[in-house]
């Protein structure tokens, strides 16, 4: 495939080489196959329930107590840092099923998060710098490339540990619906390499983007009190006793002493009614998109609206 060779010549995939053969770097048939796997995993009822339960537990047990503690002490906080810790906790918990204790009042450091952040920084620099510059930095092992190399080694070691633990748990009959477990159960012969590549891709793709979006969302809500009032009004209605009764009529059991905990599928059903909140978050994404640019390779010649001609092998950056 000459187009694929041209894109490799342009160094598109090489800039993200830490992601290996994961979904982000896959192309053509491999991309289609992996996308189907990811879509099947994320759309399954088991995973969506698991995701809702995990997120609710982290919010109740970690995020809210942390914010309350900071408020009582009258401390200023770095909202982006708190949201990064929150999304990191939820991402690692849903992908690997691990609690790394990163969201706590002590604000501890974490080597796995450092892997993600250093990898993201280096990949951004690879797009900003001429290819020969960052390749020279890689050869000399200096700057962001030095941190990138260390992040790669640490990421490999931690991923191998998580994958080994999950395989062992599944052999022992432990029921889990993490992304990693679903991948292993859906494909018995899936290699550790492919698991590592995809799980690391999901961590990098889901952590910083979500943290940035949440930070901007809460900042915008604080700047627009009328929006906050409407969101609270909608939340009050959707989670009201009337809505609980409506769901019970539909056959959804919600015990008063349990609230929504342990009923992730029910929580997601209720949240589908948060129309205004959804619109507010979409507006946040429009104003402050978390993904600053995206690349697309050209497969056949075409003419852009401004008259520019793009040919096979060209790379478009949006």
In short:
With 318 residues, the protein is mainly alpha-helical. It has helices spanning 2-9, 28-43, 45-73, 79-95, 111-128, 131-140, 143-171, 179-186, 192-223, 225-238, 241-249, 264-271, 275-287; strands at residues 295-297, 302-303, 309-310, 315-317.
CATH architecture of the largest domain: Orthogonal Bundle
Percent helix, as a range, is: 55-70%
Q: What would you call the structural class?
A: mainly alpha
Major beta-sheet overview:
2 strands, antiparallel
Which superfamily, in CATH terms, is the homologous superfamily of the largest domain? Cytochrome P450
| Strand fraction | under 5%
Query: What is the CATH C-level name of the largest domain?
Result: Mainly Alpha
Order of helices and strands: HHHHHHHHHHHHHEEEE
Family: Belongs to the cytochrome P450 family.
Protein name: Cytochrome P450 86B1-like
Keywords: Iron, Metal-binding, Oxidoreductase
Pfam family, one: p450
């Amino acid at each position: 495939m000459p187009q694929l060779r041209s894109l490799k010549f342009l160094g598109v995939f090489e800039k993200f080489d830490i992601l290996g053969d994961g979904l982000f770097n896959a192309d053509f048939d491999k991309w289609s196959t992996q996308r189907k796997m990811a879509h099947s995993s994320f759309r399954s009822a088991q995973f969506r329930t698991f995701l809702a339960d995990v997120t609710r537990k982290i919010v109740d047990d970690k995020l809210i107590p942390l914010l309350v503690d900071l408020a009582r002490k009258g401390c200023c906080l770095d909202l982006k840092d708190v949201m990064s810790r929150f999304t990191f906790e939820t991402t690692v918990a849903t992908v690997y099923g691990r609690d790394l204790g990163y969201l706590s009042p002590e604000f501890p450091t974490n080597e796995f998060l450092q892997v993600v952040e250093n990898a993201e920084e280096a990949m951004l620099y690879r797009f900003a710098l001429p290819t020969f510059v960052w390749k020279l930095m890689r050869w000399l092992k200096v700057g962001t490339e030095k941190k990138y190399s260390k992040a790669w080694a640490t990421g490999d070691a931690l991923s191998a540990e998580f994958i080994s633990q999950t395989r062992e748990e599944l052999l022992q009959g432990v029921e889990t619906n993490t992304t990693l477990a679903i991948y292993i159960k859906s494909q018995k012969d899936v290699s550790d390499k492919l698991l590592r590549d995809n799980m690391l891709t999901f961590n990098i793709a889901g952590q910083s983007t979500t943290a940035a979006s949440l930070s901007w969302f809460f900042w915008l809500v604080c700047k627009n009190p009328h929006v906050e009032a409407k969101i609270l009004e909608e939340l009050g209605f959707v989670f009201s006793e009337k809505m609980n009764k409506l769901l019970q009529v539909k056959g959804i059991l919600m015990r008063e002493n349990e609230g929504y905990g342990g009923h992730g599928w029910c929580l997601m059903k209720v949240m589908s009614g948060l129309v205004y909140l959804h619109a507010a978050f979409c507006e946040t994404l429009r104003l402050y998109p978390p993904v600053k640019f995206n690349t697309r390779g050209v497969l056949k010649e075409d003419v852009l609206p401004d008259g520019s001609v793009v040919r096979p092998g060209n790379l478009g950056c949006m």
